[in-house]
Specification:
single chain, 821 residues, mainly beta, 19-stranded mixed sheet, 13-stranded mixed sheet, 44 strands, globular
């Protein structure tokens, strides 16, 4: 009863705040959703909701002419003198009267092609008219799910914080924002979010911003996972065919062509649907286009419908985007998803130029208490009225949020989940205080992530304890961990412990402490994972993982000291000990023997790679992200690494207070990373590294620079831009100077989509070049060509590369099989 009363009050209040409101219907009385409603000769406007209802925030009385517009219907204008508020103005739109016969074919060419050629030729002129503006922006999003199971692959899903009903359906996300934007084409944006609302979260900040709404079809490509080709791109005729379906005249006597956009090849990154072009000016009147997931290389996505409406101002002769909506459907493993995002642009103010510092690194800011606006603010400021479903969901989610975040409820849930059972000694146990956001965890003895095999420890298991807490108000988090590993072959227990504290979400300042005894790979980057080594050893009797023991204590700290500049410092004391093989067990009962644990002499375990020694190391590292954009929220800073410029990294390490002077050294390394999207022609990645040791002739092999090789022919980490494919793990290790290069290219289907038959598979062509030069060895190079996104249906998770390596005049060939999730 209480819920129904709240819902009724919400509806009544919404009507009382509306200045001009009404409903847009067709001649049969059916609601017309997402119709554009504007005040004639202005840029004041709104949109109808899914039920055809609209609200227009006009506060001054007077005579107004409203323009109602939606694709497929005649534009209607209604003039009315308004003497008081609220005022109701309903509109009934009749079907558009098309007149395809009026199109005169002057040549044998398809007439649609001529119109598109003119639209392409006039792109710059049309886009330059609206290249700099200020505007009001409203964004609303809703995300629904269906057929979500209670469990998935053994993991409990539950009701997703009360969002799902008994059938596994419900709204899991709903939000809206009101903001002011300044925009300069092609992509300079400054946005201030005045109000932000998230269903079921009193402190929530919506992710709905204007950042990802710039679907500008005057540009050659529109970014959606991969660049999609605009129907009026300069090379559009390579990708599309066109057909005039209809023509009509709007209320201002503009002659409009409705042109069907037809992809030439099904797998290309193309749209299909309709684009509406204005005669004479050849401006975009509207778009109604679909993206298929397979064309955007997002197989989970079924379709994304993009609709844009443009309004015409007869005084300025300008067409401006007033409404944009994204309507999507997706699905995977029988689970279904759908949703809609609506964007309304109004109150445009066009300028000749902006002040010099208008656009900087800070792209989005949130006004103070933007997430604390009450219902009266939203009812007055929201340009598109909520539907009954949305209103109900807000009330329901807010009620559920208050209940499920109360101490009484959280304590009652914890009482059930915190019950201890004997089985949890094996499987693990978690004790939670959800109200205070604290938890204690015991990993259990059956921990698959730490159950592996190597020739030093044999089979080994791990377990541990951890405590974590989070302060949402101050955005602080703390964790304390203790772990141990036990090797069944060497019969050793090795414990470690750690402390980590993050101070805030603004600069991500942290401090950490760690210590204990552990088994380390000589290459601290751990180029071979535990599971890879286990399979390689037990099945093929290949012992690639080389290990030493480290007793250590260390302290580290870091933060972002300025936008795009990150510093980290670490001080550690380490005592290193050699390790030897203790088992020759394998599932494969062959006569082969394991190589030794000495990477310098794999044929003999008589001599270790290192002698026991200790030293102290200090490292200072920095990372510089040039041109880094960011969002400033009251609860922290969100960095947006656009990749427009390369990022640089530097590391200085000094080893001192060692067992002997010969173990001490200095080390410098510089790194450069860059990723470039080549329009619709693919992605290029570059990773360069250079380093040098000083006074390091007699340092321990544990301190050498090691390189990420691979001898398993399997890659599951996806690190193609930091690793080699056929390079043995330790043959190139150096204590002198080195230069490392990785270049990778992914065509995103650009070439593969043009090859008959292969273009039906949706695979990508990939290639790479990898180079390593050290002062102690002959240069090593690899060249790769391969295929990515191999698979069928929605599972495109495999990759295969042919690799050819060169060193000292010797060439080797190999295959690399990749798996990605």
């Amino acid at each position: 009863m209480k819920f129904k009363l709240l819902f009724a009050l919400a509806l009544i209040t919404s009507f009382s705040f509306a200045q001009i409101r009404g409903k847009v219907t067709d001649s049969n009385g059916n609601a017309l959703p997402y119709a554009s409603v504007t005040v004639e000769k202005t840029y004041i406007g709104t949109s109808s909701n899914e039920n055809g209802e609209y609200e227009l925030n006009i506060k001054k009385t007077g005579t107004y002419t409203l323009v109602f517009q939606i694709l497929g219907y005649k534009t209607q204008t209604i003039t009315k003198e308004i003497t008081s508020f609220p005022t109701v103005i309903n509109a009934t739109l009749s079907d558009e009267q098309y007149s395809i016969e009026e199109v005169v074919v002057k040549t044998s060419e398809n007439p649609a092609n001529g119109i598109i050629r003119n639209a392409i030729a006039n792109r710059k002129k049309n886009t330059d008219k609206t290249d700099k503006f200020e505007a009001d922006f409203y964004s609303r999003g809703i995300f629904r799910v269906k057929d979500i199971p209670k469990k998935f692959m053994g993991l409990e899903i539950g009701d997703l914080e009360g969002n799902l009903d008994s059938t596994g359906a419900g709204i899991i996300y709903q939000s809206e924002t009101v903001s002011k934007i300044k925009f300069e084409k092609p992509n300079n944006l400054k946005e201030e979010i005045l109000a932000s609302k998230v269903a079921g979260n009193d402190n929530g900040f919506s992710f709905n911003t204007a950042i990802n709404t710039n679907y500008d079809f005057y540009q050659n490509t529109i970014s959606y996972n991969i660049p999609m080709i605009s129907p009026i791109a300069s090379n559009a005729f390579t990708y599309y065919k066109y057909k005039i379906e209809d023509t009509f005249t709007d209320s201002y006597n503009n002659y409009i062509y409705k042109i069907k956009v037809i992809p030439k090849r099904d797998k290309e990154p193309v749209f299909e649907g309709y684009i509406y072009i204005v005669d004479d000016s050849y401006a975009v009147y509207a778009v109604d286009l679909d993206i298929k997931g397979k064309r955007a290389q997002q197989e989970i996505l079924e379709t994304l419908k993009v609709v844009q409406n443009y309004n015409f101002n007869p005084d300025t002769k300008m067409w401006v985007k007033s409404l944009q909506s994204f309507d999507f459907k997706a699905g995977v493993f029988m689970m279904k998803f759908n949703g809609k995002f609506t964007h309304v642009f109004s109150n445009y103010k066009f300028v000749d130029s902006f002040e010099k510092k208008t656009f900087g690194s800070e792209v989005v800011t949130f006004a103070e208490k933007s997430n604390k606006k009450d219902d009266s603010y939203w009812l007055e400021s929201r340009p598109v009225p909520l539907t009954e479903e949305e209103t109900t969901n807000y009330i329901k989610k807010d009620s559920v949020y208050k209940v499920r975040n109360s101490q009484v409820y959280l304590d009652s849930v914890d009482v059930i989940s915190n019950k201890f059972k004997l089985s949890k000694i094996i499987m693990g146990y978690t004790y939670k205080n959800s109200f205070k956001d604290k938890r204690f965890n015991y990993q259990g003895l059956f921990n698959l992530s730490s159950f592996n095999f190597n020739t030093v420890q044999g089979y080994h298991i791990g377990s541990g304890f951890s405590y974590s807490s989070y302060n949402e108000e101050k955005q602080k988090s703390t964790s304390i961990t203790s772990d141990f590993q036990y090797g069944f072959s060497d019969k050793r227990v090795r414990p470690t412990a750690g402390f980590y504290h993050k101070f805030n979400n603004t600069n991500d300042a942290y401090i950490r402490l760690a210590g204990g005894n552990k088994v380390n790979q000589f290459n601290s980057s751990e180029p071979i994972s535990g599971i890879e080594n286990s399979v390689s050893s037990l099945v093929f009797k290949n012992n690639f993982m080389k290990l030493y023991e480290k007793e250590f204590i260390e302290i580290g700290t870091g933060r972002e000291v300025a936008n795009g500049l990150f510093l980290n410092a670490n001080l550690a004391y380490e005592n290193r000990k050699p390790l030897f093989n203790t088992t020759d067990f394998a599932i494969n009962k062959t006569s082969d023997i394991y190589s030794s644990n000495n990477p310098l002499n794999p044929n003999s375990d008589a001599v270790a790679a290192i002698k026991e020694h200790h030293l102290t190391k200090f490292s200072l590292s920095s990372r510089i992200v040039f041109g880094q954009k960011y969002i400033t929220r009251p609860d922290g800073k969100m960095n947006m690494n656009e990749g427009k410029y390369p990022s640089l990294g530097f590391t200085y390490t000094k080893a001192f207070l060692a067992t002997a002077k010969g173990y001490e050294y200095d080390f410098l390394e510089a790194r450069l990373n860059y990723k470039k999207t080549l329009a619709n022609k693919g992605d290029l990645q570059l990773n360069l590294k250079a380093g040098k040791f000083f006074n390091a002739d007699n340092i321990s092999f544990a301190d050498y620079k090691h390189f990420n090789g691979n001898q398993t022919h399997i890659r599951i980490d996806g690190q193609y831009n930091t690793s080699f494919n056929l390079l043995p793990y330790y043959t190139q290790s150096t204590n002198n100077q080195y230069f490392e290069t990785h270049v990778n290219y992914n065509d995103n289907g650009y070439f593969m989509n043009k090859i008959p038959l292969l273009n039906k598979l949706g695979w990508n062509f990939v290639s790479g070049f990898h180079q390593l030069a050290t002062s102690d060895n002959k240069p090593y190079q690899e060249m790769t060509v391969g295929l990515d996104r191999i698979g069928f249906g929605k599972l495109k998770i495999f990759r295969v590369d042919f690799v050819r390596s060169f060193q000292g005049g010797v060439a080797k060939n190999g295959l690399m099989f990749g798996l990605k999730f």
